[in-house]
Amino acid sequence: MPRPISATISLPFLTHNLAVVRNQLDRISTEHRRVRPKIWAVVKANAYGHGIHNALEAFAQADGLAMLDLSEAIACREAGWTKPVLLLEGFFDAADINLFSHYALDATVHCRTQLDMLSAVKVNKPLNVFLKLNTGMNRLGFEPDQFRSAWETLTGLQQAGTVSQIGKMTHFARADEAHDLTRSQIRVFTETTRGLSGPDSMCNSAASLTPACWLSLPDTARQWVRPGICLYGSSPFTQRTSTDLGLQPGLTLSSKLISVRPIVPGEGVGYGHMFVADQPMRIGVVACGYADGYPRHAPTGTPVSVAGVRTRLLGRVSMDMLTVDLGPVPHARVGDDVVLWGQGGPTVDEVASAAGTIGYELLCAVAPRVPKLVVS
User: Fold this and answer.
1) pLDDT (tens digit, 9 = 90+) per residue, 87-136?
2) Predicted model pTM
3) Position 19 in a domain
4) Same domain for 359 and 256
């Protein structure tokens, strides 16, 4: 019998989360008599650990896909995806540009080196590009005083038949907060790109779910939003939970109790005895550890569900096991179900918050050795 741990991926829940985003965009657009933005479903990092082919099926109603890895983009094309595909960091080598052309992949262009690469190649058919503007994230993109020059270079490449459509892009740094920086970024983007044609793409998960962000942009049928983590059931906000947003968990990490034992006051649990009992207790050992992708730094008190009852982690997480408090679950026995996060247990955001990280990291970190079960 295999080790009793699995990651269950729900395609209906992923589809539901996309519908949550789309329905909000539809509703707000109707209220404000605007064209609804198109949706890039972000599927980078193997669809945040959910599987790129699963994402293709679940996000079939998205207007396009956005990702980082060229091989994953090609896999999407070869699997039959015909709608737009955007590479969020563009190409890294001039030799890849003809693959972009062959597979009709849109490329982000964020630096002069990429412009030089484009200028040096001949392509069989021109490719769409999004020119990235740094508005305050200070990661990728041209500075505002360099953007127009880069745009002129792309316009020349457009006339030469290397480039087809040219779009404009930026990335918010603090859209998950009500922060002046976001308004400043929108202002910089609007002023810098004023009068330039082509589609716009600004909004990540938090901004896609914040109408004030995309409503601040020109009303055009060529605006795109780029929801990512929210599609997988995790909230991009610190003050709004996934439940508040109507999202469902795309991935549920579950296991079983493999040991139950009593301990007395003064006895410690696990490596380093990071937890010491101050009263008689029953504890359970779960077949899940940091080699499965559960965060080693998750402290005592991190929520977990045993036999449908919420309880807590005790002590230090081991490579293959972790220990839970069975006080709230007096009927617990070996073989009982344990939900580390997801349907029937704490949200991935709750576990991440307890561990001092974010849900993104936990979803992407589920180890290859954990069997993936797909619910269609």
Assistant:
1) 999 999 999 999 999 999 999 999 999 999 999 999 999 999 999 999 99
2) 0.96
3) yes
4) yes
Residue 376 has a CB neighbour count (10 Å cut-off) of 9
232 is catalytic: no
Is 103 one of the catalytic residues? no
Cα 228 to Cα 203: distance, rounded to the nearest angstrom: 10
User: In this structure, what token pair is assigned to residue 229?
Assistant: 């983590």
Residues 109 and 203 in one domain: yes
What average pLDDT values come out for the chain (376 residues) when binned by 10 residues? 94 98 95 94 98 98 98 98 98 97 98 98 96 97 98 98 97 90 94 94 91 83 93 95 97 98 97 98 98 98 98 98 98 98 98 97 98 98
What H or E segment, with its residue span, contains residue 17?
A: helix 11-31
Catalytic residue among 44, 132, 168, 256: 44
Same domain, 284 and 181: no
C-alpha dist (Å) from residue 253 to 22, 231, 291: 27, 17, 13
Do 97 and 114 form a contact (C-beta atoms < 8 A)? no
Which tokens belong to 263?
A: 């301990």
Q: Measured between alpha carbons, how far is 300 from 323 in angstroms, rounded to an integer?
A: 9
Residue 279: give the domain boundaries. Answer: 251-375
Give the bridge partners for 334, in sequence order: none
The domain tally of the chain equals 2
Q: Tally the C-alpha atoms within 13 A of residue 202's C-alpha that lie toward its C-beta.
A: 32
Which is catalytic among the residues 38, 122, 256, 271? 271
Percent helix, strand, coil in the chain, to 5, is 35, 25, 45
Q: Tell whether 124 is covered by a domain.
A: yes
